[in-house]
Design a protein that fits this description.
The protein has about 475 residues and is of the alpha/beta class. It folds into three domains: about 1-130, Rossmann fold; about 130-165 and about 205-290, Serine Threonine Protein Phosphatase 5, Tetratricopeptide repeat (Alpha Horseshoe); about 300-465, DNA Cyclobutane Dipyrimidine Photolyase, subunit A, domain 3 (Orthogonal Bundle), CATH 1.10.579. The chain has helices spanning about 15-25, 35-40, 45-65, 80-90, 105-120, 150-160, 165, 205-220, 225, 240-245, 250-260, 270-290, 315-320, 325-340, 345-355, 360-370, 380-390, 405-410, 415-420, 440-445, 455-465, and strands at about 1-5, 30-35, 70-75, 95-100, 125-130. The longest helix has 22 residues, at about 270-290. The radius of gyration is 23 Å and the shape is globular. It binds flavin-adenine dinucleotide (FAD). Flavin-adenine dinucleotide (FAD) binds near residues 235 and 243. Flavin-adenine dinucleotide (FAD) binds near residues 348 and 383. Pfam families: DNA_photolyase (PF00875), FAD_binding_7 (PF03441). GO terms for molecular function: deoxyribodipyrimidine photo-lyase activity; DNA binding; FAD binding. This is Deoxyribodipyrimidine photo-lyase.
């Protein structure tokens, strides 16, 4: 009996739980529902939409090799998903639907509506917890609550993880052709922005596997030493691929284990630090399910709801455009806007600068990141922003406020990253790039700092103290 696999952020044929389960039951028809209006409502911008489109195209090609046709529907918003899928199920005589779960609230609701509709139509619908080792709700504190702090979550993760949770799912063998044509893939409609050059981020499983291999071969062992230096290529660059499932966490962890004597928690320091980052990713997915308020634009820490964020469009735009007068912040924002990606250290620095130094609502920054990131992912982005704003899990204590100039001298000591993104400062000696001398600013065509660190820090401390 024919099986329908609905692909979403799992754009791969290898190690895909839903696809493997479907193929074990019968011939597979695949479908992709393009939901541009919905994604735009979730703030995804041109970079992400373009990468998504290129990923679907790579998936289609991979599926063709298995004789699996890929149907394509434009549904606009999620509420049209049940009807679109039921129509296909009826047309194609489908006996069961298979999906890998997505965890943000709107995606969960969409899936529930689809499952209800299939139930009513008497067609089976099966969901798989494919993107995480532990289904949310199955890794809980001693009291039976979802973890709201990372370290004990990671400990419990390592303690309880079983080899089956990391075993790669079977890649289906080619099936007999079904006599169903794949749909042609429509071009992206006109978007507000032009996406970054796709050659920077080739889409698909092969490109993802290449990234992983090169990272483990050349950089994995140095990861803990190099991961914080934005001028160095010290991290994997896998985030866009993980976000759309062009590679799975199991593939990443299996590759680590084969380099690290079968271990994830001990052995090479670089590799185990990297494993920890993948666990952060899973942690924030659990947080989205366990604390759905974070999906409703609410802070994780309830008492921070009343925080008096400042309304200051001028400063917000200076931050967006990289004109704050803090070179590391500005260089980072230009990296984001130009490439669709930003180094993790700088995501922390810029997010903290917006939410603390400028005391501007973190939700504005969260949305701006989403509009530009090629790896934009609700759970990780929301988690990162709430962490920086001290409203989230693990909340950075509100009084620990990065000094952007100190961050700059520590993590871009030679000023290379700054010089690359702010050519107007490249002529300065390395030391002066972190805080260009005031008397040179006009000559350099670079702004003076829009806030003074100490005063801004004090203002943020007072705003947080006022909550008590
Ligand atoms: P590596 O260092 O090689 O890490 C490997 C993988 O682990 C990453 O690809 C990512 O999937 C995961 N990961 C690493 N750090 C984190 C983290 N702190 N939280 C969750 N997952 C993590 N990551 C996204 O994937 N999408 C986002 O939209 C996103 N927004 C962020 C916003 C802020 C304010 C902050 C502070 C962090 C954000 N991150 C986000 C997490 C992190 O910055 C990126 O995952 C990382 O920079 C991607 O580069 P990489 O693939 O080279 O990472």
């Amino acid at each position: 009996a024919r099986q329908l696999v609905w692909f979403r952020s799992d754009l791969r044929i290898h190690d895909n739980s839903a696809l493997a389960a479907a193929a074990a039951k019968g011939p597979v028809v695949a479908v992709f529902l393009r939901s541009i209006k919905q994604w735009q409502a979730h703030d995804h911008g041109a970079n992400k939409l373009d990468f998504y489109a290129r990923g679907v195209s790579a998936l289609k090609e991979a599926l063709e090799g298995l004789n699996i046709p890929l149907l394509h529907r434009d549904i606009g918003t999620f509420d049209n998903a049940p009807q679109a899928l039921l129509e296909i199920a009826r047309e194609q005589g489908i006996s069961a639907l298979h999906v890998n779960y997505e965890y943000p609230l709107d995606e969960q609701r969409r899936d529930q509506a689809v499952f209800d509709a299939f139930h009513q139509a008497d067609i089976a619908a099966n969901g798989y917890h494919d993107a995480v080792a532990f289904a949310p709700g199955t890794l809980l504190t001693g009291k039976g609550d979802y973890y709201g702090v990372f370290t004990p979550f990671a400990k419990a993760w390592h303690k309880n993880v079983q080899p089956e949770q990391l075993t790669l799912r079977d890649t289906p063998s080619p099936q007999s052709p079904l006599n169903i044509d794949s749909d042609p893939l429509p071009a992206l409609p006109e978007l507000d922005d032009t996406p970054v050059d796709g050659r920077q981020w080739p889409a698909g499983e092969n490109a993802a596997a290449d990234h992983l291999e090169r990272f483990l071969r050349f950089r994995g062992r140095y990861y803990s030493d190099q991961r914080n230096f934005p001028a160095v290529r010290g991290t994997s660059g896998l985030s866009p691929y993980l976000a759309l499932g062009m590679i799975s966490y199991r593939q990443c962890l299996q590759a680590v284990m084969s380099e690290n004597g079968g271990h994830l928690a001990d052995g090479d320091a670089g590799l185990i630090t990297w494993v920890n980052e993948l666990i952060w990713r899973e942690f924030y997915q659990h947080v989205a399910v366990g604390f759905p308020k974070v999906c409703r634009h609410q802070p994780f820490q309830d008492h921070t709801r009343a925080l008096a964020w400042r309304d200051d469009d001028e400063s917000f735009h200076a931050w967006c455009e990289g004109r704050t007068g803090y070179p590391l912040v500005d260089a980072a924002m230009r990296q984001l806007v130009t490439t669709g990606w930003m180094h993790n250290r700088l995501r922390m620095v810029t997010a903290m600068f917006l939410s603390k130094h400028l005391l501007i609502d973190w939700r504005r920054g969260e949305a701006f990141f989403m509009r530009h990131l090629i790896d934009g992912e609700f759970c990780a982005n929301n988690g990162g922003w709430q962490w920086a704003a001290s409203t989230g899990t693990d909340a950075a204590p509100y009084f620990r406020i990065f000094n952007p100039t100190t961050q700059s001298t520590r993590f871009d000591p030679a000023g290379d990253f700054i010089a690359h993104w702010l050519p107007e400062l490249a002529e300065l000696p390395a030391k002066a790039r972190h805080a260009p001398p005031r008397d040179l600013l006009t000559q350099l065509d670079y702004p003076a700092p829009i806030v003074e660190h100490k005063a801004a820090r004090q203002r943020a401390l007072e705003a947080f103290k006022a909550l008590k």
